[in-house]
Each structure stands twice: as C-alpha cells, then as structure tokens.
Design goal:
- The protein is mainly alpha-helical.
- It is 68% helix and 0% strand.
- It is built from 16 helices and no strands.
- The structure holds fe (ii) ion (2 copies).
- The site of one fe (ii) ion (FE2) has 5 residues, from helix 6 and helix 7.
C-alpha cells in the first residue's frame, strides 16, 4: 500500500485518480472474514472501481432470489398482520405536505442544516477561508448531498421491498410488504420533489451506498436481503433522517421527515420480526456467524465511508487531500450526531435478532459501539415514540 507521504508527493491529477482505488482495496481487505470478503468484493469492484452508479442511465442488476407462492393464504404471523393493519391506517399522501412553503437553501434564517453542522474553523487551519456566503452555500451543498443520498437509498429500498415481498415465506409478511412497497414509492416521490423543486440540485449516488445496494439486490438469500435492507440500510436511514429532523430549521422539510420517519419505524420493526426467529431457529451456527460478521462490516462501512466525497470533488479537490476532507467530515458535529442516532437504533436491533453474540461483542467494543447495546429495539418503539424521542433530545 502506498504511504501518505508517497501519495502526497504525487502530481495532483495522478493522486486524484488513484485514491479511489486505494480506498477500494482498503475496503475489501478491512474484513478478515473470507466469506464476507467474497460476498462483498464483486459489489466493491462494481461500485468503487467501475463506479457503475455514475455511468448514466440505466444501471441494471440481475436478481437471483426465489419467489415464494402460497395458494392457501394462511394467517401465519399475527404480529406481521397487526403491522399490516397499522401500515394501512398510517398511509398518507405526499401531495398533502406543505409544498407552498417557500424554501431558499441559502437563507440563514431557516437553514436546511445549521451552521454548526460542520466545523469551519478546522478548514481555516488548512488555509481555507470561506466567506459567509460560501459557508452558507457549502452547507446547502451538504444538505443537497444528504437528501440526494436519501433519495437514491429510497430507490434501493423500493426495489428491495418488492423483492423481499416476493421472497419471504410468511403470507402475512407478504401482505405487510405490499404496504412497504407503497411507502418506499412515496418516499422516492417526496424526496425527489423536494430536491427538484426546493433545492434545485441532485447529486449522483455515493459509491459506497451503491456497493451496499448492489450487494443486497443481487444476493440470492432472502434473509441477507432482509438484513441488508430492513436492518442496516433502514437503520442508516433512520439515523440520517433523525439527525436532519432534529437539526433542520426549514419547516417543510421537518414535516416531510416526520412523516417518513414514522413509516421507516414500521419497516425496521418488520425486519426484526422476520429475522429474529429465522436467525435463532433456522440457521446453523456457521451461517448465523457469517451474517453476524457481514452486519459488523456493513456497520463499519456505514460509519466510515459516507463522507460526502461528491461535495469534496466539487469544492475542494485542488485544496485538500481526500484524507484531510474525510477527517474534516468525520469530526464535524453534524456527522457525530448522525453516527450517534444511527447506532443508537441499529445496535439494539442487531442484539434483538441474535447478531450480537459474545464472539462479536469485542469488535463492537473496539469500534466504540457497545454503549448502544442495551437500548430499545424496533419492536419496542413506535413511530410516534421515535419522534417524541427526537423532539426531546
Ligand atoms: Fe423509505
Ligand atoms: Fe424503508
């Protein structure tokens, strides 16, 4: 591996081209588990090296799951049936959001994300001085980047929810799943409309988000799709939505997020229900361990890799190294809150589905994530409670 010193002495243009490759190799060698590596590596190549998410329309992915039919229509899972009923009652129309509210992404009175989201003093120490207007514009870029990634994640969620509805063996799960497909469609609708009509800026999909979506859309094992989508990506989404909900000063976005968060709380709840029994009763110990390792690696990927490189390329590519930018974003107060909200929700769910055994706990401990292990899981929290929790923080 090239050292930072060697890297920093390379001409800028060459450094710019090889840094993503170095990150790809780091990602693919970070895990010591050969099975996890084998299952993630093809997606890593497609996402990080070939950048398949940035090569124009369309991106196609083959799917390999089995579609499970049942012609007897059993009432086979009362908790999922109840969730289905709640989901029907909780439907809402994206048109009813307050779209007539005027949004100016650069307005300091009602900032999409507050000024202290990023620590601009840290940039000053690198010789970068931004004017007041530039700081506001950079904040607006960061907000557009986050909302764009939400939107791309929602598209992944829409297709994954459809796949999971086909593949799951519980009939009540299929009925519930049909409501989640509608929910995710609505989320794509409202996030796109917000970006298009209020922000006027759409970023391409982040390569690391692409890796995760690519891996779980193509995986033939329904429970890995579930784990990836319903627990990991939905957990990431809840963390990100919750952070923005807490921080935003823009009332239209706050209302939009409040509605979306309540839907997402049901989605994670469903994931926990479906996986809990399956992991505990149906899988062999080595299969369970493989899922446990996979979840840990994806958790680290989510914590360490969503660092707004697309914003960096637009603003600072000639002024900072990628590593300096990564440090700046990692240390920013907004991202610290995001990590906290995300793992506070995610780690208890992993415990609940049986993927936090004594074997893996030291790894979470080293990653600083065990502090969240005793929290409430999705089955213990309604959407209203989640919102109340965020409002109280
Ligand atoms: Fe969603
Ligand atoms: Fe969702």
């Amino acid at each position: 591996m090239l050292s930072d010193k060697v890297l920093n002495n390379l001409p800028h243009e060459i450094r710019r081209r090889i840094e993503p490759y170095i990150e790809a190799v780091q990602l693919m060698t970070a895990t010591n588990n050969a099975k996890v590596l084998r299952s993630m590596a093809p997606s890593g190549v497609r996402g990080l090296i070939l950048q398949r998410g940035k090569q124009g329309v369309p991106t196609t992915m083959p799917s390999h799951h089995r579609v499970y039919f049942d012609w007897t229509y059993p009432n086979d899972h009362p908790e999922m049936r109840e969730l289905y009923t709640r989901a029907k009652e909780g439907q809402w129309n994206g048109d009813d959001l307050p779209w007539d509210i005027d949004v100016d992404p650069e307005n300091p009175e009602k900032p999409i994300i507050p000024r202290h989201f990023m620590e601009y003093d840290a940039l000053r120490s690198k010789g970068i001085r931004l004017t007041d207007l530039e700081e506001r514009r950079l904040n607006a870029s960061a907000a557009s980047w986050m909302l764009s990634q939400f939107l791309h994640g929602e598209q992944g969620a829409l297709f994954a929810a459809a796949q999971v509805t086909e593949a799951v063996q519980f009939f009540d799960g299929k009925l519930y799943g049909s409501t989640q497909v509608v929910d995710e469609g609505r989320h794509v609708e409202v996030f796109y409309r917000y970006l298009d009509s209020k922000m006027n800026k759409l970023y391409q999909i982040n390569d690391n988000l692409f890796v995760i979506i690519d891996a779980l859309i193509q995986d033939s094992r329904w429970d890995v799709k579930f784990l990836g989508m319903q627990i990991m990506v939905e957990g990431l989404a809840l963390g990100a939505f919750g952070t923005l909900y807490q921080m935003t000063g823009e009332p239209m976005l706050k209302e939009l997020l409040k509605m979306v968060i309540q839907d997402e709380a049901r989605h994670v709840h469903y994931g926990v229900l479906a996986l809990r029994d399956h992991f505990r009763n149906e899988l062999s110990e080595s299969e369970r361990r493989e899922r446990e390792d996979w979840a840990f690696e994806v958790a680290l990927l989510m914590r360490n890799r969503f660092l707004m490189y697309e914003v960096y390329e637009e603003w600072f590519e000639h002024k900072l190294t990628r590593k300096e930018w990564a440090q700046f974003v990692t240390d920013s107060p907004g991202f610290a809150l995001f990590r906290e909200v995300m793992f506070k929700r995610l780690v208890p769910n992993l415990r609940e589905i049986g993927l936090l055994s004594d074997r893996i706990k030291p790894h979470y401990q080293r990653a600083g994530l065990m502090q969240y292990a005793d929290g409430q899981s999705a089955t213990q929290l309604s959407g209203d409670q989640l919102i109340a929790d965020l409002d109280a923080a």
